[in-house]
Amino acid sequence: MLGPILAWPPAPLAQAAERDAPLPPARDLQAEARAAARSGFPLVLMFSRQDCPYCTRVRRDHLAPLNRIPRFREVLVRQIDLDKDTPLLDFQGRPSTHAAFAARERIRFVPVVGFYGPDGRQVSDAIVGARLPDFYQSYLEAALLQGR
């Protein structure tokens, strides 16, 4: 008689790992902002650092599951890492890096979630910090709707 077949990793661990996965990194802000505008929403940029537990919480609990909410299914979310020199094209199509772009945006503390129109201007107030977890989703949804 064969014993039970076990999946590896166990389903709850696999689901947790999926929820903790980073957001797609920003690569071409000009193209990504245009794509976001076609969906009717602003481009959402999460400014983050690897060593930031609050960033992990915001990403995992609010931004990653955003596309599972039917009215926000088309929202385009990208990550900017302050502590990485990942290549990036800025909103004018000029070469830059994640760290340099964050410095130009005057981002010093994380997490910060910004909302950008196709011209690279912020269309809603950024959400700075992790804030109160019970209200974070309502701040996020209000900023998305304001940015439309």
Write a short abstract of this structure.
This protein has 148 residues and is an alpha+beta fold.
Annotate the secondary structure layout:
Layout: H1 11-19, H2 29-39, E1 43-48, H3 53-63, E2 77-81, E3 87-89, E4 95-97, H4 98-104, E5 112-116, E6 122-128, H5 133-147
Parallel strand pairs: 1-2
Antiparallel strand pairs: 1-5, 3-4, 5-6
Largest sheet: 4 strands, mixed
- Uncertain segments are 1-18
Q: In the CATH hierarchy, what is the superfamily? A: Glutaredoxin
Number of structural domains: 1
Share of residues in helices: 25-40%
Beta fraction: 15-25%
* Quantity of strands, as a count: 6
Distance between the termini: 60 Å
Nearest-integer average pLDDT: 87
Task: Determine Rg (CA atoms, Å).
Answer: 17 Å
Structural description of this entry:
By secondary structure, this protein is an alpha+beta fold. The protein has one domain: Glutaredoxin. The protein has five helices and six strands. Strands 2-1-5-6 form a four-stranded mixed sheet. It has a two-stranded antiparallel ribbon with strand order 3-4. A hairpin with a 5-residue loop joins β3 (87-89) and β4. The chain starts with 10 loop residues before the first helix and ends with a helix. The model is unreliable at 1-18 (pLDDT under 50).
